[in-house]
Amino acid sequence: MKRKKGLFVTSIHPLEKTSKHQIPLYLSRVPAGFPSPADDYVDKRLDLNVHLIQHPNATFFIRVDGDSMTDAGIHSGDLLVVDRKLEPGDQSVVVAALDGELTVKRLVKKNGKLFLASENPRFKPIEVNPEVGVEVWGVVVHSIHNVK
Amino acid sequence: MRQIVALADCNNFYVSCERVFDPSLENKPVIVLSNNDGCVVARSNEVKALGVPLGKPIFECQDLVKKHLIQLFSSNYTLYADMSQRVMSTLEEFTPEMERYSIDEAFLSFTGMKFDLTEYSRGIRDTVKRSTGIPVTIGIGPTKTLAKVANKIAKRTSELRGVFDITDHPRIEDYLAQIEVGDIWGVGFRYAEMLQENGIKTALDLTKANDAWVLKRMTIKGLRTVKELRGEPCMPLELAPPPKKAIMSSKGFGIETERKDDLKEALADYTALAASKLRRQQSLCSVIQVFIQTSMFKAQGRYSGGISVRLPVPTSDTGVLTQAAHQGLERIYRPGYAYRKAGVMLIEIIPESAFQPDLFGTTLTSEKRLNALKAMDAVNARFGRNTVQTAAAGTLKPWRMRRARLSPSYTTDWDELPVATA
C-alpha cells in the first residue's frame, strides 16, 4: 500500500485555559561529570497565557468587526483580550454595551463625566449611564492581529 | 470559635449567563429551556412576574411567549459550566473554606472574620458582578440553613440590595415567620403538607416544634434542619479534596494490529476504566480525547493520531463516553497501519454537584442509569475489573438531542466568540 509522505494535521484542539509549562531539566545531555555552563541559566518556557492575562476569571476573548478603531491599533477581525476586573480610566479602550450590542469604544472623561467615544468623527460621544443600558463591559488589554 | 456561614447564589443563573454576552436581553423576559427544549428551567424576573412556574412545558406557554415577546434559549451547558467556574473561583478568593453546593451556589466560611460581614459581602457581590457579569445574592447566618433563609429574604427585599445577615438579628423571629415551611432548605414539598396539617406553617413554628416529634416524622436530617434554624450548627462545610483534573487511560497492546475493531474494543475498555474513576471521584467530564499510534521507532509506517470530542452535556456515563470515543476513532483511524497503543483522556472535569440536570431528570444519564453504573462499579471493585461491562450500544445518543435555540459557546469555542462592532 502506498503511504502518503509528509505532515498530516491529525488533531485540532481548542486552546485550553490551563497553561502547561515545560521545565527542561538539562539544556544538554550530561555525560558523567561534565555539566554544561548554560545549565545555571535554565528557565521556564514563556507562556502567552501568563503574559496576556492578568485576571483569568474576568478575562474574555472578543472578536472585532469594523474599522472605527484602527487608530487605536485595532483592526476588523482582530482578537481582543478583554479584562472586566480592570478599572477603566480616561482614554482607556473598552468594550461597551450600547443599544443592546457589544461595541469597541474609547472611554473619555470630560467635566467629571464619562463618555464613550469612537475614533470615527461621525459618532457623537455618548454618556455612560448603566440605567439606560450604556455601560462599560470590560477593558481592552490586547488586540491580537493575524498578520498572515 | 463560633461558626458563621454565607450562602452566595447567582440570580437566575442560566438567564444571567445569556445576558452577559447579549446585552439586548437585559430587562427583557427570557426563558431557558430544559433538555430537548421541553420545559422552563430558568426564568428572568420579568417572566417570574408573569406567573410562569419552573418546570412548565413550554408548549403550554405559547400564548404568553407571543404576547410578551419572551425570548427562549436552549440550555447551553458548556457556557454555564465555564461561567460557573469563573464565579466559583472569584468567590474562593474571599474565604479560606468554601463548599460548592451546585452549579450556581456556594457556602463560604466567614468564621473568625472580625469585620462587618455585610459590607464585606457587598464587596464580594460587586467583585463577582464586575469580573463575570453575574449578579449574586448573599445570605449570612450562624448555620447553613439560616444562611439560606437570609439569602431568601435578601432576594425578596430589594432594599437589602442583595445582602442580608441574619446572625443574632433582633427581629429574627419576624423573618422566620415570613418563611413558609415548604421554602425551607431540607424540608421542601415532601414534608410541607404534613407540617401544615400539624399546624406548623412557618420556619418560626418549626423552631418551636418538639425534637422527638421532628425526629420521628422527619428523620434525623429533619431534626438537624430544625436545630440549624434555631442557630445550632449541625452541618459542617463539605470540603472535598481537589479531584483529578484529567483522567487518562491508555496501554500499549501486547501485539500490533491494523484492525479498527480491535481499536474499538481497546478504546471501549480504557473508556470504561476512566469513566469508573470519574464516577468514583463524583465528577463529570465534558471532553474525551482519543489517540491511537503505531510504534514510533521504525523507519516507515509511523502514525500517531488524536482528537478531542466534546460532549454537549457533562457526563460520566461509560456508554456515552464510549460512543464518543468511537466517533473520534472514525475520524483518526487510517487503514494499513500497525497500531501498538491507544488511549483516552477525560478532561474538562467538573464535580457532579456543579451540574444540575433539569427538573424532570432528562439528562444524558437518568438517575436510574447512573445508579446502575455505580452498581456496576461496585461489582467490578469486588470481583475484578470488567466483570460487568456495558454493551457498546444502548446509549441515549445525546448529540441528537434537540437544542434549536442554543446560544454560542461564547467562552469555550474560538469560532463562537462574542463580536463587538467598531
Unreliable spans of chain B are 391-400
β-strand percent of chain B reads 15-25%
Please state the average pLDDT score of chain B: 87
Q: What's the SSE pattern of chain A? A: HEEEEEEE
Spatial strand sequence of the major β-sheet of chain A: 1-2-7-3-4-5-6
Low-confidence stretches of chain A: 23-33
Q: Please report the distance between the alpha carbons of the first and last residues of chain A.
A: 37 Å
Gyration radius of chain B, rounded: 25 Å
What does this protein structure show overall?
- The complex is a heterodimer of chains A (148) and B (422).
- Helix content of chain A is 3%, strand content 30%.
- Chain A has 148 residues and is mainly beta.
- A seven-stranded antiparallel sheet of chain A has the order 1-2-7-3-4-5-6, with no helix packed on it.
- The radius of gyration of chain A is 23 Å and the shape is elongated.
- Residues 23-33 of chain A have low confidence and may be disordered.
- Chain B has 422 residues and is of the alpha+beta class.
- In chain B, 38% of the residues lie in helices and 21% in strands.
- Chain B is built from 13 helices and 13 strands.
- Chain B has helices spanning 13-21, 45-49, 62-68, 77-92, 117-132, 144-156, 172-178, 188-197, 203-207, 211-230, 260-280, 318-332, 367-383, and strands at residues 5-10, 30-33, 40-43, 71-74, 98-102, 105-109, 136-141, 163-165, 247-257, 283-294, 304-315, 339-351, 419-421.
- In chain B, a hairpin with a 2-residue loop joins strand 5 (98-102) and strand 6.
- The model of chain B is unreliable at 391-400 (pLDDT under 50).
- The interface between A and B is large, with 40 and 39 residues.
